Give the backbone structure.
Amino acid sequence: MRTSIRKLILVVLLVITALSVPGQLLAQATECGKERGKTGGALNESTYKKLNDIYEDVGNELYDVAFDKLKIMIKRARGKYLQATLYQMMAQVEWARSNYDASLDYFERAVALDALPDKIHFALMYQIAQLYYMKERYDDALDKLDLWMCKVPPEKIKPAAYVLKASIYAQKQDWKNVVPAIDKAISMSDQPKEAWYQLKLASLFELERFPKAAETLEVMIQLWPDKKDYWLQLSQIYYKLKKDDQALAVIALAYRRNMLDKQTDILYLSNLYASREVPFKAAEVLQKGIKDGIVKGSRKFWTLVADDWYAADEMDKALAGYEQAGKASDNGEIDLRRGYILVDLERWKSAAQALNAALGKGSLNDRKTGEAYVLLGMSEFNLGNYSQASTAWGRAGKYPKSRKSAQQWMKYMHEERVRKDAQN
């Protein structure tokens, strides 16, 4: 059980995050360029037994009992090594009791005595820097971390220390110093963590160093190819840098990997295709998004689909899109647009149906209402429905801007009927 208790305390010692220690307390042991070479001291059998008892109390969560015993021992302790050991244990107990300021004070005292072995002493220094960070005292945290780095042999410094340094700079919003610190951590590690790259990327965004951000995202996509956000961000950066073809290529590849699962994703890709004058793909992507339930089947989006099909000269698909848009709208605008196309294609019956739907829904201004009646008259005329055509043109004549056109059609219909009668 004692072994597990010791492991628990060691974990607490190494993982705690953020206290505070005056600079003068560390100066004697951590001046840059000086060798320390402390190996610790020895404890007599009686002291060792008492410490083991205290470890047992901590393991059983009897923190008050353990702390009272430590207070008695510290009053009688004479050697610096024993005092430092006791202060270290008192700090751990206070931490367990959530008395973080008191815990900090005892950690400071343990380091100030400059008596613990190098491994423990420097671990406490590093821990104090972490604890400052946790307490949001970032300048102090940076000072202590720099002090620790100047004393510890370079080969003993792990990537996590540079991650801590980068994190401190990030909290200070000192983005230009975040990048070299996190780059150092990445270069030192065979398997850099994703969070490190995310911190670097965020800093590059803050600095508006977009080409470097793009390079970073290219690496992140290679390491974590299933993270959709990185594909989107890379595409958007390329777009911002006016590299539209690269922006489209990246997001199109993400689409082919079935990674685009939000309406905004599909709209972004479709709009990119449209801006690069590839309307067929723009329509295809957006229509599939609607069919798959990713994009809302609204008037707005069906109209976009239809407009793109129209631009791609896919008239049947454009008409189907406008029909869907019309079903989702109580406004006659879309049905009128469909009517224009059907008249151009001389599909008179379908044109008459679309135009009647447009006029039935209303919401058209006078000019468009008059045009709709003119087109309806043309459709009925070509279907041989002369009476309906005459009625439609008569109504068109009530609108000033369509009156002349309606009269011309009425005249033309009269002449045609006379000509046919003469032939018969």
User: Anything to note?
Assistant: The first helix runs from residue 2 to 15. The radius of gyration is 39 Å.
